[in-house]
Amino acid sequence: MKSRKSAMYRLFFADEKGAVYDHPWLLAAARSGGDVVRPTGRPLPLPEGATLCVLPGRRPVGFDPDTGEQVVLKEARVGRRTVAPVAVGATMPPGYTRTLLPAAARPPLGTAGAPILPQWAYTAAAFSPEGPVAWALHTDRRGHWDPSRHSTNDLPGLVEARLARADNPVYRQLARCALQWNCFTAQNTFYGHDEGAIPASAACNARCVGCLSETAEGMPPSSHDRILRAPTAEEMAEVGAEHLETAAGRTMVSFGQGCEGEPLLRWKEIAQAIRLMRGRTLRGSINMNTNGSMPEALSALAEAGLDAVRISLNAASPDLYSAYYRPVNYAPEDVEASMRTAKEKGLYLALNLLVFPGVTDREDEVERLSALVRRVEADQVQTRSLAMDPDVYWEIARDRGGRGPALGVPALIRALRKARPGLVIGNFARGLGERGRAA
Question: 136: closest CA among 33, 55, 50, 199?
């Protein structure tokens, strides 16, 4: 007999047209690293801005509530039809960090019928008596990144008006980012509030397996296109100064976005752009999102007026870091040196931690990340769900990084907070007036 407790979260599946159904009795399974597990922790009702998504070429995996055995769902009845079911997950809006991955069975990756999935952060989802749920944490509750404030009906008009006033390649790239790819940071530049973007670089000195702006061999097409020509200092300064002078809310501009290369490769031009911006206004914050590969360049930018930096990493273990980022002419030691440089120069230091359940939360990796946060005296850790096919990343990570059992993403976050009291955990950059306190 099925217990009421175990029957709470039922398995989702989709038909060949993408319509999603809940199974009448199979219970949802989830994935942590390479293991199929019973979902633990209370899931969240699917929030506004989240979507259910199909995982092509993958069969749903659930648990039989009577026997506890795993079941690969190979066919299902929908009315009078028998369908070949497809696995289902969820994608979450900004401000959430997933805690479990969707469980799915597939043929060998890359074979016919098992395509590599596009770069999204696939999250375990299920059906509850109250509706769809997903296994994630609401890690940043500040409302200024609410999806309802973005992609509004008036955005195309705002973009058109801005392009009519300024013939600047930075604005033209931001228009593509805002309208084609729905980048909220790019949209903010046209809305005139909060954190605005300044694309700065067409080249990169990393070859990230899950790059969003340059397609790696064998991977799906990138979800963004980089700016075609690296802009001049004057072009970047025009966009940045305008935003700093007039934007409402948490006023900030950021160099280095997901749609571009590495901004530190253009540190001289960016330093000049910062000086030009600060020659016009002292208002707001100037931030950089970077891989932290060039500590000397970061030092020079701090002297020019940069006041905050977010440095990305997927692990504190050099072997796993290198396998994912595939750095060119720099090493993980340079990244930590940049973190130290940032603090020495008085910058607000955020670490952009790409989180993958079952890897980032392994016991040894948690200890190494905690030690790193302590050593570099980080001000903030932004927990970002790593956006790529889980099977591709698992092939990279299974024999690399810290070992030990997966403690769970909530335990990872607790350990980071314990490692550095006062550490801010969130998903978004902090403005000048809110640094040093948790949301």
Answer: 50
CATH number at residue 306: 3.20.20.70
Residue 137 backbone zone (phi > 0: left; psi -120 to 50: alpha; other: beta): beta
Say how far apart CA 37 and CA 41 lie, in whole Å: 12
Do 178 and 279 belong together in one domain? yes
Q: Are residues 367 and 239 in the same domain?
A: yes
For 211-266, the pLDDT digits (tens) are: 887 777 777 877 777 888 899 999 999 999 999 999 999 999 999 977 789 999 99
Residues in CB range of 248: below 8 A, 6 or more apart = 192, 193, 194
Model pLDDT for residues 296-326, shown as the tens digit of each residue: 999 999 999 999 999 999 999 999 999 999 9
Instruction: Please name the residue that has the structure tokens 């900004």.
Output: 94
Residue entry with tokens 């976005």: 257
Q: Which amino acid is at 51?
A: T
Element (H, E) at 439: none
Same domain, 59 and 152: no
Pairing between strand 248-255 and 285-290?
parallel
Domain containing 277: what range? 143-434
pTM of the model: 0.94
- Count of alpha carbons within 13 Å of 79, Cβ hemisphere only? 2
User: What letters, b where the CB count within 10 A reaches 16 and e where it falls short, cover 350-367?
Assistant: bbbbbbbbbbbbbbebbe
Residue 439 lies in a domain: no
Asked if 38 contacts 132 with a C-beta cutoff of 8 angstroms, the reply is no
Same domain, 200 and 306: yes
How, if at all, do strands 87-91 and 51-55 pair?
antiparallel
The last residue of a domain, from among 104, 138, 172: 138
Structural domain count of the chain? 2
Q: Are residues 193 and 158 in the same domain?
A: yes
pLDDT digits (tens, 9 = 90+) for 256-271: 977 789 999 999 999 9
Q: By C-alpha distance, which of 185, 186, 182 is closest to 172? A: 186
431 close to 251: Cβ distance less than 8 angstroms: yes
Asked whether residue 123 falls in the same domain as residue 164, the answer is: no
**Is 3 part of a structural domain of the chain?**
no
